[in-house]
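Lay summary. Proteins are chains of building blocks that fold into shapes, and those shapes determine what they do. In this project we predict the shape from the chain. Here is one chain we studied, written as its sequence of building blocks.
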Amino acid sequence: MAEFKSVLFDDATIDGLLQHLAVLLKGAAADPGRPLSRIPLLGDEERGRVLAEGNQTFVERDAGATLHGLVRAQAARTPEATAITCEGESLTYAELLDRAHELSLRLRARGVGRGARVAVCLERGLPVMQALLGVLGAGAAYVPLDPELPEQRLAFILDDAEVHGLVTQSSLVQRIGALTSAHALCVDQLDDDGAHAPAINDDDETQPGPQDLAYMIYTSGSTGKPKGVEVPHAAAVNFLQSMQQMPGIGTDDVLVSVTTLSFDIALLELFGPLTVGARVELASAAALADGMALEDLLSRSRATLCQATPATWRLLLEAGWPGDHRLRILCGGEAWSRALADELLPRCGALFNMYGPTETCVWSAVQQVMPGDEPVAIGPPIANTQLYVLDERLEPLPRGVPGELCIAGAGVARGYWRRPELTADRFVADPFADGNADGNTDVASPDPRSEQTASPGAAPRLYRTGDLVRRRNDGTLEFLGRLDQQVKVQGHRIELGEVEAALEALTNVRESAAAAHTFGPGDTRLVAYLVLEDDAPPEPSELLAALRERLPGYMLPGLFVPLQALPRTPNGKLNRGALPQPESVQARPARDLVPPSTEMEQSLARIWQELLSVESVSLLDNFFDLGGHSLLSMRVVARLSQETGVRLNPGELIMQTLGQVAAAATRLHSDAGADDPELLEQVSPPSGAPSQPKAGWFRRLLGRDRRAGR
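And here is the predicted shape, written in a compact code that computers can read:
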């Protein structure tokens, strides 16, 4: 008999608690000397049921399939169909494969083959797919690089990956090629390249197999350096073929690709449609630099699929996007709210929550989101994938009990390139791989995880995600937070240790701490806490300029908070919970305040203060240097339009000071009229204003989506 509050618990939950208590007491009585933490809560029957729940996902796959092999097979079926379009240009499947094969021959002539790694660094355009397929066709794995990354980061990746070649373009080769000793090939100058190899035979032993590396992608690293995740062909093939079923990709689909190549979700956007005869609409850099242009592209291309982070979808909503009922929305990369789901559902044909880390090949779970009041959940695993909620000893936990989400199956990556200790910590032996998921190890069954190996012949493993979850009564998973110092900011996966290492490499910084702080819905920013060598207040614009040489834009702090000392626990460790809340901190750059005076300046300053949570704003301040980001820039535009009737281009907030923005807005108001949709014009900067332009606002958010990952 148990008494409980029915508003907090239901009968099933209480019955489960009583059963677990009985198992615990029985175990304690049987072995009184056993530590309490090692006494199981689950009986054998429930343990088997918990392990099996949702994990019966076996689907037969072609054991010899490779990533580029899927595209080649589709090209043979539909050679004249349009494969990819960008800015009015297009390639059929046959044309794309011909161009890729030409690049493969050039790479082969330079000794690139099976087991090699080739960096790919290109601006957005049709040559992107030519490069990826060309590298894979030569037998190598591609290492994608974003040309907008800081040169220090690019140089580190090129060196760490030990690339055997670089595929780039003539406009980038001088800058990127100087960072590596590997030979560079420009996709727009292949006709000028005399080297040529014999024709490549698909049955050639130099062609990669399913366990060979398909790509290696770099993510933020907790030690201060990015780390390379090694993904084999088998993992990529299983993922893409799973996506064909759920959320579904078919011949008639058009997928608008908005993600930069250096983030792993680009795999779905670029390869997914090409495995089924669909079309990729590659959004140009220009479209990603203008929210209105992207909205127009979604409509004009008659898009049926688009994947992006919650931050990106919020950005489109802020821009007034009306939606399209032809469009199926894939949303993932970080946890997102029911409120966002309620806004998106009326604007699309179907909405899906996508979950998965880079280390298990893009997405590992898909859940269609339906109308209702329940939080957005992590859905069932994709084919040949298992999701487990485990304790620190890798023992399964009952429903409702928080634990670490661990992922096993065909998508698990080899590990981290040249990081054996980290690989051993995160990629561990799969204790449930022998036999059925019901825990009966005496019964043999087909186990797709036997195909997932760190190297041919290695034992199956599972990946410890570091995500804290619990299984709900309906079998879905609820995300509760992180077990480490990884954070998500505007959809980007960031290790705070890497940000802190970059901060402490700066002159005059003795110690630092970084944290992600949420100021409101969709407004999460990185905050840097600094202990300086002297009492001189930090100049955020100078700090940002120095950090831009080391970190990508999405890892730059939005606020800098000087402290006399970092808070510590009694044993001397950083007490992150005691870091001060940044709302009370004056985040304006430490230059002399030039107060706003005109009506337009005062209106704009008030909007900035309210949205950025800063005490005061100077005419010489820059919106993004004060901690602004793309979503907030859309809110600035909307607020200013409501109050003054002037519609600005949010992209100009990155390049202008408050004084410049206000002056241009005043000109639009007086010269063109309050309702004129003309974009904000460039104006000459006042004395003392920052002159260095920053990366495109929409591209920085849209073009660098990750799971998140990511």
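What the prediction tells us: Confidence is low (pLDDT under 50) at residues 435-453, 673-710.
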